[in-house]
Specification:
alpha/beta, about 25% strand, globular
Length: about 100
């Protein structure tokens, strides 16, 4: 499969492919804890990058922290051009309740 052809610039200078990966769903059920199949989550992350994805969107509230830890485990050392965009400020409890 060929790499994704279309790109755009974030902020005018950070070039990324139009199709990125939203990492919310690599966590466990209800976006809490570790996924039931951790190895598959790691494979999904690696495969996305192999297919040309160079923008991964995540947040520290996914898991909490699980998404970011999986991304690091699967992809570090990060390939040139990979952008991992993370959001902060939303807090989640172990029950899934959110607060700012």
């Amino acid at each position: 499969m060929s790499p994704l052809p279309d790109t755009f610039r974030i902020g005018g200078d950070l070039e990324v492919h139009r199709l990125g990966l939203g990492a919310m769903r690599i966590c466990g059920p209800a976006i809490l804890g570790w996924p039931d199949d951790r190895e598959n989550a790691l494979r999904v992350l690696r495969r996305a990058v192999e297919l040309g994805v160079n923008l991964i969107d995540t947040a520290d509230s996914y898991g909490p922290e699980v998404s970011e830890l999986l991304i690091a485990e699967a992809l570090h050392p990060y390939p040139d051009g990979l952008v991992v965009a993370t959001k902060g400020g939303l807090l989640r409890t172990s029950s899934g309740a959110c607060s700012w």
